[in-house]
Structures are given as C-alpha cells and as structure tokens.
Design brief:
homodimer, 158 residues, mainly beta, Elongation Factor Tu (Ef-tu), domain 3, six-stranded antiparallel beta barrel, two-stranded antiparallel sheet
Amino acid sequence: MNEPLTMVPIGVVHNDVTAAKGVRWQKVVSRIRIAPELASALEGVEAFSHLLVIFGFHQSPAGPAPLQVHPQGRAELPLVGVFATRSPRRPNPIAVTVVELLARTENVLTVRGLDALDGTPVLDLKPYLPRGEQIDKFRVPRWVKQLREMHDQEKDHE
Amino acid sequence: MNEPLTMVPIGVVHNDVTAAKGVRWQKVVSRIRIAPELASALEGVEAFSHLLVIFGFHQSPAGPAPLQVHPQGRAELPLVGVFATRSPRRPNPIAVTVVELLARTENVLTVRGLDALDGTPVLDLKPYLPRGEQIDKFRVPRWVKQLREMHDQEKDHE
C-alpha cells in the first residue's frame, strides 16, 4: 500500500488570484489550459454544465501537514482531524472542486468557482454526475454551519 | 507546470471485490484502513454522513491512457474524450467517489458505495459539503441518461 504514485500535471490554472485570503471563489472565473497534446481528451466535456477539477495545492508549505486543524484557521471553531476539513495542508496536497464550465475552446476551459491560485497544476478533470455526486440527504457537523454563517456575515460587512 | 507530484497512500481499501465487472457498487460495503499514525487526522469525520474518497486506480493497465473512449466500453455510446468520462484509464489514475460513512473505529472507516477493488490505495479523504458538491441545476449529455437506462434495465434482468 505504501508505494508512492507519481502524477504529471495535465494543465495549469490561469486567473488573477495570487493570494487566497478574502477571495470570493464562487465568483472567480479561471481558464484551465490543458496540455495541447491532450486536447482531444476534452471532446464532449462541453455537454456537461459542471466538472470536478482535481488539482494540486502547489503552494502549501513543505514538511508534514498538521494532523488536526481549526477549520480555516478559525480558533473559535473546534480542532478537528485534517480529513474532516478541506484544508490545503494535508498528507497528500490534492484538491477536488466542483466548477461551472462556461466555455471550451480547443484545449482551454473557462470555468467559474475554481478555488485555485494562478499557476496551480491541474491533475484531472471529471464530469459532474448527478447519480454519484448529488446526495440528497446528508449530515454535517455544527461547525460547518457556523463557518457558513461567518462567511455570510463577512459578506454583509463588505 | 510539468513538475510531477508524488503521492504516498494514506490507507488501503478492504472488501470482497476483486474484479469490477458487473458489481453493483452502491451496495458494496468496504473498510478503509488508514495508516495508524494518521488516525488522529480522522477525528471528527464521523460527524459527516458522506465523504469524498480520493483513490488510485492501481489496476489500470500500464502505458498511456487512450484520449477518447466509449463510456464504460459500450460501443453503442458515442466516442468522447476521457475527461468527459469517469473511465479508470486516464492520464493520472485518480478516482473521486462520494461514499456514505457508516462507522469509524480508530483508524478504520466503514463506508458504502466505494467503487474500489480490494487492495486499492487511498490518497485522501474529504468531507462532503453541501455548499460545494451539491449542485441543483446541472446539465449532462444524452449518453449519461442512456447509460443510466442501460444500468436500470440490466438490474431488472438480474
């Protein structure tokens, strides 16, 4: 089980975001430039409204990730295991984000809602499938709701 | 952008499934055994009903993946780019699946719906978050519906 897996990026993110702090990611429009030799592997993605983008947290600090964190570094939220959070510092620095696909031109996708900095390496793209990603009845801990309220409040104060 | 990323598995899947053909994954119950030294990183995951499991397709054939495929190898469905499908043969053999979390005991999770063979290396676990993964209005191509109908028909004939 411990054999390392090596991933070669398939593309890179281009946008105006160079620092994550305070960014309203839902509104950010990014271009994902896929390696030209992989362009034909995108054929038909434009028929999907949403994609899963798998990318690398390439700016996470080096060294082992902390095993427990306060979600988004907010001390007022409980200390939880890093696998209970979407923290960018994790044992394998992989991110998965659902984005809205706005357009495709050959090897370039335009997407909205990708929470990745300019220059982020992209590892994979997958279609968003209702039977699979669409969970109707789910449960989340209290801190997720608290975090949502904090975000909404911060928006109100902008 | 082309610098390879190396991932070290955080755990391994245990179940009774050694070949994928004909398996009804929604019903499969698996255990995910996380490396004991990472057990504390699971603290609090049990408050979530669903998790994203990121794992490696470790049994995909070696060599470059085809850039276009018929979804699930069904010749009656259109030939599309591999990034428009969830095919296990893809440039980076990464899978993302939403599973139901049934139980956690120290470093072992019991989950339902993980479409991974026995022995599959797990790379990451993330909480399923409604604001993020829960898309209300989405569009999928016609072949996704055809595939769903085929699956339902095959079930009826069991």
